[in-house]
Amino acid sequence: MSNSGNGKFDVTRRGALKGLAASTVLATLPVRAWAQDVTLRWWSPQGSPDQVAAYKFQIEQFEAMHPGIKVVFETTSDEGYAPQLAAAFSSGEVPDVVTHLPSFAVASYYANGLVEPFDDVIEAIGADDYYAGANDVFKAADGKYIGTGIGNTAANMLWLRKDLMEAAGVDKAPETWDELRAACQAMQGGGVYGAPLPYGRNSMTSLIFIGVIHQAGGQVFTPDLEVDIDSDATRAALDFYASMRELCPPGATNYSWGESLTAFVSGASATGIYAGRVLANVNAQNPGIANSVTCVTYPRISTDVAPWTFNDFPSVFIPAQSKHKDAAKMFAAFLFNPEGYIKQLHAAPGHVLPVLKSISTNPMYLDNAIIKAYESEVDLMASAAAGGYNLGYESAAHKSNDKGGEVVGSGVIADLVQRVVLNGENADTVLGETSKTIEAIMKG
Amino acid sequence: MIRRVLFNLMAWAIVLAVAFPLFWMVVTSLKPQSELFRRPPTILPEVTTFEHYWRLLSETNFLTYFQNSVVLSVVTTVVVVSIATLGAYSIVRFKYWGRESLAFLVLFTYLLPSVVLIIPLYLMLVGLGLSNTIFSLVIAYTTFALPYALWLLRSFMAGIPEDLESAALVDGASRMGAFRDVILPQLLPGIISTALFTFILSWNEYLYALVLVNSDNTRPLTTGVMNMLISSFNVEWSLLMAASVMMSVPLIIVFAFLQSYLTRGFGAGGVKG
Amino acid sequence: MIKNKQTKLERHYATLGMMLIAPTVLVFCAVIVYPLVSAIYLSLFDIYTPTLQGEWVGLDNYRELLGKGEFWASLRTNLIWTVGTLSLQILFGIGMALVLHQNIWFRSLARSLILFPYFISTVVAVLVWRWLFNDLYGILNHLMMAAGLIDMPVDYLGSMPNAMISVILVGAWKYFPFVVIAVLARLQTIPDSLYEAARIDGAGPVARFFDITLPQLRDVLVVIIMLRAIWDFKEFDLIFLLTGGGPVTSTQTLPLLVYKEAFSLNNMGMAAAYAVAMMAVMLVFMILYIRKTGEKDA
Fold first, then answer.
1. Nearest beta carbon to residue B227 from set A9, A41, A47
2. Burial tier of A56 (Cβ tally within 10 Å: 0-12, 13-18, 19+)
3. What is the CATH number of domain C68-297?
4. Nearest to C119 among B91, B140, B251 (CB)
5. Domain with CATH 3.40.190.10 in chain A
6. Distance, C-alpha B202 to centroid of its chain
């Protein structure tokens, strides 16, 4: 038997192995060939089952109106959208519509030419129908709009339990820090903690603490975007935050939105700091306290300082590299079509609040058990959120800050809180370093 | 005798301590939501419910993710093990230029942190028109699975006596004939063991899956479950624990059948550097 | 004549050998060498991640990195984590393998249970542990409080040194079964005659372990330690999902730093520089290690 004779057989065997690999490859390839003329990809990090159901309804309606256009909804991860979008942008394989990202993230993308101006979509939705100034946060330095809000969220409401307040003899909702501290002290005990403030190394701590700085009368940037965090107001905010530590659960050092929310909803803390999601969750998970839950804007250093509500302005925007911009714009505008839009809002009642005046008064919107039951709370959140700000837009006087996303993402503000409050480092030193870090981010 | 009993008790105490998180996972998944946040926690559920499992299967994309994970892991395993078996055979039993440094290179590629590979890899996959497909993940997974598989198989291969192959060659078999008839059967425990490791690695991978695919039709379990159940507003603990149990079931089954290969294979070759 | 034929055959074999390795080399070049080269290339630019556009800065990224405290702090954290979790894995792994090698009750069930942590996905492991660690509803705090060990719930993940200890322990729990698998396999191949001879010489169990078992395990341990050291050094998922690097930056290892630079700060160039530096560190350790263990062999 010669070697070459068997060699042939070997080759076919190798071929067979390759063939096996090839056929499995085929099985895993996408079925692009069956797609319709235009397929829009819609990304959002908000994909709870109820919300997805509402999105599906909107998609079906839209597809029925526009044969030939197909819309695919894809959930992105809440903490991980940055690498996902980075990969998408750098490759050009972008989604056509992205919703629910905080406005400052969009600003960063726009500043780098990745986002399509949104002015015509806002016109199509009806610019007059928005609450006054609702789109200011989306105005870029060049005067164009980078997107619009798909909803408002009042992220740092103070949630209260009327039953616990009564039992502890707290007769009114706290308006100042002193009152809040006193109330928490009175209500803490018997396994119930005062408040679930976040001290973790995450975006919630950063965002909430930015609010606290403002509630002390301070700011992170001046209106001209000079770093202004090294101030007495920030020191007061740190003092307040430190004094609250003993009123928070031990694990608060690792709290983010989920833990903080659960602590209040489960009854483990007497107050809460969150958006309207509390209402739906209390009713579903702990109906026993549903009747005694209410909310006010978060207390501040004194009544001289105006309340400051953090609104992350969940957005809608269209990536500049989208291959179907016209269809995407049509769809983005359609998202605000009352029937579907209201369904979407009802998927998280009181949490995502309408940005259009006509929707807030629409009887269909008001016809929801939770919105009805907590009418005054929902109204308060709606007005607080409409007058709310975030790091991309600290006040009406501030220029648009397209580095807000990076400042939050770097964790520098959460680090500030952790170093001063948890590690007990010298506030002056840490603030000096924090300023420098933020300056470096603004430059870089 | 008493010493034996004591030893057994002690051994089992440790085993149970190690397995406690597993037990707690199962217990949590069987508790109704209202019992979940009870303080202090109940050790055994007061009410046992399977509703979380039912909800996962009927209301969510769990089954799609599951199917994706199975396809993904199986394809990765087949591709990686096929390539690595041939490669290991070549490295161990053939002599040619660069053979030694190749083995070292394999180890070197091991040092790359996957965080950096992601973006260049993604660009390449998009260039190939593979973005958002299960196959893109198969390619990505070979980056970490292939070096390891090659490394393992190399030591298994080295453990097979060369005489066997020589004998076959003397009898007139070709190299590939000898490979098929002599090496492969001897290598089988090693192949199964390597396949198991590869399967485990791909079943459990998280970071690549997070970045490289973004559609529910192609997403595997790890990222699918995280995306679905952990969000800003809520961590769905009971559903998460139910999902965790179900994610682990296939591995338990595979493992129960092949457990002996896992250790036997290692022993036969001896893990030689 | 015969000699000539031999070399012809050898040449044929060499070609065949190359053909067999070809797929491996091809895949390596495509999925590993190419990204590696890109990483080094990217590290010479100042790049905005989502666009991958940027300008040439030469070695500036490296200069900045070496001057920055964050790199050295993360490197230190990384070493603490690697050494801590690796030694626990090895110690506990060998110990458990010795126990499981004995004829204990329901041995295969015990083996399955022990190997389990290795098989579950990191995501699952982290979630389960976060649930166990939970300050309010976590069973660990409850059990310890019930046993009277502590009065207040312990904050496992949010304060130091607890966070580092917790991460190291979870890492050890997750990965020690790998050591068990390898050591157990090797134990099964040690001939009983060696032990009998030692017993006749009057060696006790401890002496038998150090004189026979450990030297026999040496080869396998050399490899396992290296593989596990590389993996632990590169570990991302477990730490990222468990603490996110906190509190402050106490558990921020280099891979987490790379992630932060790349995707939170959108600085791909800098991230690539960190990654390349990290590789260099690992390479140095690896070469030292191979030298050291190789010397003893000779």
1. A47
2. middle
3. 1.10.3720.10
4. B251
5. 33-152+313-372, 157-310+411-443
6. 5
Residue B23 at interface with chain C, using a CB cutoff of 8 Å: no
Three-class SS of residue B65? Answer: helix
CA-wise closest residue to C165 among C84, C271, C222, C226: C84
Asked if residues B194 and B41 have their Cβ atoms less than 8 Å apart, the reply is no
Under 8 Å between Cβ of B247 and C120:
yes
Which residues of chain C lie closer than 8 angstroms to B184, CB-CB? none
Query: What SS3 class is residue A320?
Result: coil
Give residue-wise pLDDT tens across range A44-58: 888 777 888 899 999
**Separation CA C46–CA C269 (nearest Å):** 5
Q: Which residue has the tokens 């009927």?
A: B58
Tell me the count of B-C CB pairs closer than 8 A. Answer: 268
Q: Which fold has domain B61-269?
A: MetI-like fold (1.10.3720)
Q: Given a cut of 90, is residue A180 above it in pLDDT?
A: yes
User: What SS3 state is found at A201?
Assistant: coil
Residue B153: pLDDT band (50, 70, 90) is: confident
User: The complex's ipTM?
Assistant: 0.83
Superfamily, domain A157-310+411-443? Periplasmic binding protein-like II (3.40.190.10)
**Residues B61, C1: Cα–Cα separation, whole Å:** 70
What tokens were used for C143? 């059990």
In CATH, what is the architecture of A33-152+313-372? 3-Layer(aba) Sandwich (3.40)
Residue C39 contacts B where some CB pair is shorter than 8 Å: yes
Burial of residue C2 (CB within 10 Å: 0-12, 13-18, 19+) is: exposed
**Rounded to whole angstroms, how far apart are CA atoms A88 and B210?**
12
- DSSP E strands in chain C: the ranges are 45-48, 53-56
Q: Within 10 A of C55 (CB to CB), how many other CB atoms are there? A: 8
Residue B81 pLDDT: 93
Chain A residues close to C244, C-beta within 8 Å:
200-202
Closest CA to B221 of B237, B239, B233, B209: B209
Q: Name the C residues in 117-146 with CB < 8 Å from any A CB.
A: 133-137
Q: Which residues contact C150 (CB under 8 A, 6 or more apart)?
A: C141, C144
Structure tokens at A123: 């016109």
Low-confidence ranges of chain C (pLDDT < 50): 1-2, 297-298
**Beta pairing, strands B234-235 & A271-274:** unpaired
3-state SS, residue A269? strand
Element housing C195 (H / E): helix C192-200
Over residues C248-264, the pLDDT tens digits come to 788 889 988 988 888 88
* C-alpha span between C229 and C219 (Å, rounded): 16
**Domain locations along chain C:** 2-42, 68-297
CA distances from B238 to A82, A285, B22, B24, B25 (A): 28, 12, 14, 11, 9
Q: Does A30 touch chain B (CB under 8 A)?
A: yes
C128 neighbors B32 (Cβ within 8 angstroms): no
Q: Regarding beta strands A97-99 and A38-44, do their DSSP bridges make them parallel or antiparallel, or are they unpaired?
A: parallel
C-alpha distance from C103 to closest chain B C-alpha (Å)? 9
Nearest chain C residue to B148, by CA = C227
User: Which residues belong to CATH 1.10.3720.10 in chain B?
Assistant: 61-269
The residues near A31 (Cβ < 8 Å, ≥ 6 apart) are: none
> Nearest-CA residue of chain A relative to B61?
A49
Contact A118, A318 (CB under 8 A): yes
- DSSP code of A172? S
Q: What is the pLDDT of residue C5?
A: 56
How close does chain B come to C171, measured CA to CA in Å? 13
Give A31-42 pLDDT, tens digit per residue.
Answer: 333 344 788 999
Question: Both tokens of residue A57?
Answer: 């309804």
